[in-house]
Amino acid sequence: MARKKSILDFYKMKANKEKVAWITAYDFPMASFAEQAGMDMILVGDSLGMVVLGYQGTIPVTMEDCISHCKAVRRGAPNTFVIGDMPFGSYHTTDGEAVANAVRFLKEADCDAIKLEGGVRVASKIRAIADAGIVVFGHIGLTPQSAGQLGGFKAQGLYVDSARVLIEDALAVQEAGALALLVEAVPPELTEFIASKLTIPVYSIGAGLPCDGQLIICGDMLGLFQAFTPKFVKKYANVAEIITNAFKEYVEDVKTEKFPEDQHVYHIKDTPENFQKLFEEYK
Ligand code: KIV
């Protein structure tokens, strides 16, 4: 069994130009598959709101949802670096509230780090959480919790003005004490520039190759999330099709009595005559 990695391992991987592969997971089975596959880290994203809870966005996701799913993931992947994603509203008021909620991810769900969205405007929250001794991952670019302000789930930094904002955000995240940065849905040219300006590892989800590793959402890459597929997703499987076909076959088998077969039932250990006598008693 591979040793659980720490943030120092991710710095070594950066120095050695070894890419980090991470994925989202929200439950025990997905986490255990990720660990068995040798995933470097797992994000318990608030995307769980869309992928497993059926919301249209991430806004309704609560701290209780996140903690509960982080616990399940930790049970499934005890030897993998797990990042808890701070949901909307859990770090948006005071620095104190941000620290208190970040602490819950470590104390209650045994996470190794937390992630939160935003740059300049959340710098004081990042500083406060980092000062509490917690590993913070920043997240800039397409930040789904601000999809309303961004006008939807749209690529960011396509023009010089918005690219400048993202560069300032990236610098602010590092300056505030985050130990890694995730950049979402920006052009690779900008990712490369940001990665060259920072000393902390920079990871991409939809931000191209020139950085220290890639994140993908399990529901997207497995074909489990059907509402839409972002341009940056590579589909590795169509699990929804496999599951639906299995369910259809089961329905058919039940209706036609092809299931259960003899191998799926328990056989009596007493004699048939004794069972007959028992049934007679109740006639
Ligand atoms: O919640 C999540 O899965 C995320 C990714 C979109 C980066 O934050």
Q: What's a quick, concise take on this entry?
A:
The chain has helices at residues 7-15, 28-36, 48-51, 63-76, 95-109, 123-131, 147-150, 160-176, 188-197, 218-221, 239-255, 272-281; strands at residues 20-24, 41-44, 81-85, 113-117, 136-141, 180-184, 202-205, 213-216. It has 283 residues and is an alpha/beta fold. The chain folds into two domains: 7-237, Phosphoenolpyruvate-binding domains (TIM Barrel); 242-281, no CATH class.
Structure write-up:
This protein is of the alpha/beta class and 283 residues long. The chain has two domains: 7-237, TIM Barrel, CATH 3.20.20.60; 242-281, no CATH class. It has helices at residues 7-15, 28-36, 48-51, 63-76, 95-109, 123-131, 147-150, 160-176, 188-197, 218-221, 239-255, 272-281, and strands spanning 20-24, 41-44, 81-85, 113-117, 136-141, 180-184, 202-205, 213-216. It has an eight-stranded parallel sheet with strand order 7-6-5-4-3-2-1-8. Strand 1 (20-24), helix 2 and strand 2 form a beta-alpha-beta unit. Helix 6 runs parallel beside helix 8 (160-176). 41% of the residues are buried. The mean pLDDT is 97. Bound molecules: 3-methyl-2-oxobutanoic acid.
